[in-house]
Write a structure and sequence with these properties.
The protein is an all-alpha fold. It has one domain (56-254). 87% of the residues lie in helices and 0% in strands. It is built from 9 helices and no strands. The protein has helices spanning 2-36, 39-49, 54-77, 85-123, 126-132, 137-175, 180-190, 193-219, 225-254. α1 crosses α6 (137-175), α3 runs parallel beside α6 and α8 (193-219) runs antiparallel to α9. The mean pLDDT is 89.
Amino acid sequence: MNGLLGLIDRPVHAVRRIGATVLFLFKIVAQVPAALRKPGYIVEQIYNAGGRSLIIIMLSGLFVGMVLGLQGFDLLQRFGSEDALGVAAALGLLKELGPVVTALLFAGRAGTALTSEIGLMRATDQLTAMQMMAVDPVRRVVAPRFLGGLIAVPLLTAIFNVVGVFGAQLIGVSVMGVDSGSFWSQMQSAVQTDDVMEGIIKSIVFGAACSLVAVYEGYHAAPTAAGVGLATTSTVVTSSVLILFLDYILTAAFL
């Protein structure tokens, strides 16, 4: 009987959690106009979320592009289409790998930092002190960090794509001997505006999802060291699953 009640309770808890997250999003959106009045603070959060993630994004983009160059050349060589390597690398990065990998890296690096920062504020009663001083913690703490992550992810995705294409060109042209003119000209003729827009929309949605999960987990973390650690772990797991789920939904919608 207890096992049956446990099975029933889990979906109910999941639905309640989703509802609470959506309501929390509404609270953040309501405070966005007030947060925009202090652009310097938002720029600081963009730097904290995006600027400090730049190195890992660039390194990952370079290696992902190099792997695409190797695997793409091996695959296209079987069909005698090595010159289309630029098209394959660009479309793979713009539409799929760029937004997804960037968002996963962002969740693992910046998302956990946001959760732990806000969670420590909760554990040390800083958020409670703000409420006692008639300062809304959502407006002062949560909204700027949410906006910082929302803006940072598309920018990081663009950098990831640029570095990834360079890595694919480095391997395909310099190592595998693909003609440089064919690499760039076919990429330019095949990649369309819709392909770029798909990647941009995905990166914006992923940025909003990762930032929302991070600030929600941190804001509602238990005010203990164990609670902050659990919230940080939950941020990575939830964000990763949510990114992959949203990626499927968006890809199906665009197709």
